[in-house]
Structures are given as structure tokens and as C-alpha cells.
Predict the structure.
Amino acid sequence: MRCFPENARKGARTYVFLAASGFLRRFTTAIKFFSVLRKILFFLTSLSTLWLLLGVACQYVPPHIFWPAGFVALSLPGALVLNGVLLLLWLWHKPLWALWSAMLIFLFWGQHTRYFNLGGSKASLAPQAQQIKVLSYNVRVFNVYKHLHEADPGLPEKEMQWVAEHPADILCLQEFYHDKTENAYNSRKRIGKQQNREIYVGKALTNSIGAEFGLAIFSKFPIINKGTVTFERPTKNQVIFVDVKLPSKDTLRVYNMHLESMAIEEKDVAEAIQSEAGLKTKGRNVARRLKGGFIARSHQVERLLEHIKSSKHPVLLCGDLNDLPSSYTYQQLRRHLKNGFEEGGSGFGFTYNGKLPIRIDNQFYSDRLELLQFDVLNQIQFTDHFPLEATYVLNAPSAEEGD
């Protein structure tokens, strides 16, 4: 038998020892890493659970009673995203613990569908004549000011023509503008009279040349009643309504709303998060405006709901809510009415045409209305809002309602 020299045997033993030592060090490091990772995941899971529960609870707290609840509710999408990320991390690290995050997603699925939905159009046996086509749109005063159409001088005419020729039976327009002295902005004539639509305008302001600013509802159905929902506190924002007589002889009440504005510029938000100095200056200003908006809208939505509850007719509520789906304002409306995007929307449904991915424009409706189709027309980019287009049919009242 051939024998290896003594130094060769020693070298082999040293190599094996070093290899084993290296493996043990890597193994120990991996154990420590996964131990630390597990602790971090446990902490983040506890944080996201508490955050999620507090955020949902704060949707039921009126900001005019406890204003910090508005900020907690505003942050709720962050908790939803964090919980989704944790689900993926637990599936990779320890699948059994992923059940907790999965359970939270299941329990609060309704919160997720306020931001992302997989719905779509529904088939209906209702005749075309019974279908009600609705357009809701913040028209931004038809871009009348020079700075709004400087890049495209033809923008106001393009927008006016698109709105006027839209086939909707009912149009609810926010930030409406009408100037009878200039044909390009003679909205009552071009959208109303020339298209055989009746009109009701809620004027928030009339300027020195007699031009009107406010809300407008146009209808191809006869308007048999109209009015304004008044708020206790002075504001330029408002809600108007009309009762329209449908071909079926039923009456539908249509509300057009534009609640208190957030009054926040995108550049202020950007500056607030880019530096400590920006956070101190712009951040405080943004927070102050958010607080004021939370409080004002909580008062306004309660007054609006009082008016809706007093209606003897089925209700369609359209407009610019100026609040997110996680807010007290949205939650109060959602408790009494269905939401068009939640019931028939698809994708994320962002309605703000800007850098902030938010959904602040909505259509809500009562149980007797059946939603057939709902779309956010994000290809229409005339203003800083996207139009909402929907089709409904009004079902016959139930036996209990008939009694």
C-alpha cells in the first residue's frame, strides 16, 4: 500500500477543518440572519395589524369631533400595502405564518376593493330605453383661463365639444362655467339647449361680466323638481339635486356634489417630503389644510346624508368628493349607498389626472338602481380629473317598498 507523506496528511486535515469551520460560520450567520428576520417580520406584522385596525376604526370617527382620526384613516392604504408585502415575505420565510396576513386580507377585502377592483360590465335583459347613461365630470371651468390652455389653445373648445356631444342621458358637471356673451363658453346653450337637455345650475359665484361658476346637472329626462343642499358653515362648495321623470314614469333623484377642497398643490407635497426644511414649512401647511378639509367635509357629508335619507325616490349621487376611499366622508356614504367603482369598476380607478394616484371622484347609488357598466375614462385628459361614465337601470320597487 502506498502511504502519503506526513505533511500531506496534515494538510488534508487542515483543509477539512477549515472547510468545516467556514461552513459552521456561514450556517451560524444564516441562523442569526433568519432569527433577526423573523423578529423584524413579527414586529412589522404586529405594527401592520394595529395600523389596519386603527385605520378602519377611524373611518367611523367624525373629524369634527376628533380630527387626528382623519390622518389615521388617510394612512390606511399604507397598512394595506404593508400587510400584502408581509404576506409575500412570510410565504418565502415561514409559510404557516402567512396565514395571519392572508386572514387580514380576507377580513378587510372590502377595503382593498375601494382601491383596486376586478369587476366589469354586466349583461342585462333591460331594454335600451330603460337604461340610464350617466356622465360625471369635473370640467375645471372648461379651461377658460389662459394658464390652463396656454400649451394647447384649442383645449377649451375640444373639451366643450366632447362634453356637449357625449351621449349620456344625465350629466353632472363640477367646476362648471357659463358665459352667455361668448359662444365658446355658452355652456347652457351648447350642452343643454342644442342637445335637447334640460338644465339646473347651482351658482357658487357670478363674476363681473356675468359668467357663472358652480355645479350643473343636464338631463334628457324632464326635470320636475330641483334644489340645493345648504350647509350650516359658509363655503363655495355645494350640492345640488334634481328629480327627473324617467320613461317608465318612475322618478329618480340625482345629486351633484363638490365637497370642500383639499386645497393642496402637488408641488407642496413634493417639497414636504424632499427635505427636512420642506417638511417644516410645506409639511405643516399641507397638514393644516388637510385638517381643515377633514373637518369641513365631515360636517357636509352628515348634512348631505340627512337630505338623502329624506328622499322618497331612489338616489344617484355623483361628483367630486375631494376625499379618499379610506375617509370618514366616503365611509358614511358607503354605509347607505353602493359605490360605482366598487361594484363595477376595473383596475385601480384613479380619477385624479396628476402625479398623485388617488380616487376622489365617485358615483354612489341606492339599491333600486342596478349598475350595468362603470368606467373611468382616463384617456380623456382635458382637465386634472378623469370623467366617470356609467349605465344604470332602475328596477321595480320590492313588495316591502311598495307597501
In short: The chain has a mean pLDDT of 88. The longest helix spans residues 6-58.
